[in-house]
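Hi again,

Forgot to attach this to my earlier email, sorry! This is the prediction with pyridoxal-5'-phosphate bound. I've pasted everything inline since the attachment limit keeps bouncing my files.
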Amino acid sequence: MPSSTVLEIDLDKIKYNTSQVVERCHKNGIEVIGVTKGFSAIPQIVSAMVEGGIDGLADSRIENIIELREKGFTQPITLLRIPRLSNVREVVQYTDTSINSEITVINALAQAAKELKKIHQVILMVDVGDLREGVLQENVLGIAQQITSFKEIKLVGLGTNMGCFGGILPSSLNLGVLVELGSAVEKLLGFKLETISGGGTSTLLLLGNHEVPAGVNQLRIGEGILLGTDTTNYRKIRWLHQDAFLLRAEVIEVKSKPSLPMGTIGRDAFGNIPEFIDIGVRKRCIVAMGKQDVNIEGICPVDKRLTIMGASSDHLIVDIEDSEHEINVGDTIAFSLAYSGLLSVSDSKYVEKLFKGSTWANDQA
Ligand SMILES: *Cc1c(COP(=O)(O)O)cnc(C)c1O
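C-alpha cells for the complex follow:
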C-alpha cells in the first residue's frame, strides 16, 4: 500500500555535498568521516557519500553499523557513541575504531578483542568544554598511559565533541588544547598518534576561516553533507545544497475556520495547555502527517507563505491563508527538513523513501 508521506532524497546532491566537503578538508590535510546516524544509515545515502569520496563512515548506533556491514560496506567504520559494556563484542567484531572515555569499557573491549583475535582501535575523547563525553584535560595523560597496557587495543588518537550538549563552538583555542594534548601524549608514549579528530560540521566554519590549528587531521561530518546547514553556528553553508531532502505529505481537509478554538480549553493530546491568538478567520488545511511520523519542530513548509499551526499524533494543521496558489484536498505540501526532522522521518515506517538522481538506487531499496 502506498504511503501518502514521502521523503524524497536526491542522491546526486548528497554526493556533491560530500565531494565538496572532502575537497576542502583534504586541501588542509584533514580526512572526512561521513556520519550516518542522522538518516539511520539508509544504504543508498551511504553509497552516495562513498561515491563522493568519503574516507570512512561513522555511526552512533552499533545496530546501524551491523546493517552496513551486512549490506557489504567495507570502509573503515567508527562507533561514535561510547560502547555499552554489554555489547563490546559486537563493537570489536563490526567496527574498526570506537570513541571512548571509560577505562572499564576499554578493558572490556580488550578482552573481547582477545577472544576474537583482533586489534581494536580507540580514540580517546577529551572534553574541552561542551561537557558531553570525554575525559577532563588533566586526566588525559594518565588514561592514555593506561590504554597502552592493553595489547589488543591500539590508541590511535584523541578526539573531541562540540556543540551537542553545552552548545560550545569549536575554536582555534579549544582545538589547540586538543592538539597540544596530542603532542603531550606522543611524548609520553613515544609514538605518533594517527588521528586528532576535531569535531563535526561546526568545525567547517573554522576551516573556511583558516582557524583550524595544524595537527587536526580528521572531521566527522553529518549535518553539513546531508542538509548543507550548520545549526550550532546558525548558518547555511553557501557552497552546499540545502535541499537534498524534501518531505511531501497529502492534504486531507481544507477549510476556513476561526483562529480561536470554541469552548473550555483543557489540555491538548500531549498534556499541554494550548494558547491561541485571535487573528480572525483563516484558511487552513490538515495534512495527513503528525508527531508519530516526524518531529514537527524539525520541518518547515517550502512555501514561506504557509505556517505550521500545530500538530497531533496524526494531523498537521497548516495556515494556508496567504498561499499564492489554491491548495485542494489531495494536493501535497512540501517541507524542508532540519536535522531533528530528518532524524525522525528516516526510520519511520510511515514515511516512504523515494530516491532521485541515481538509476540503480530504487531497485535496491
Ligand atoms: C553526531 C556526531 C557527529 C556529527 O555531527 P554533525 O554536526 O552532524 O556533523 C560527530 N561526532 C560525534 C561524536 C557525533 O555524535
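DSSP finds ten helices and 19 strands in the chain. The two ends are 16 Å apart (CA to CA).

That should be everything now.

G.
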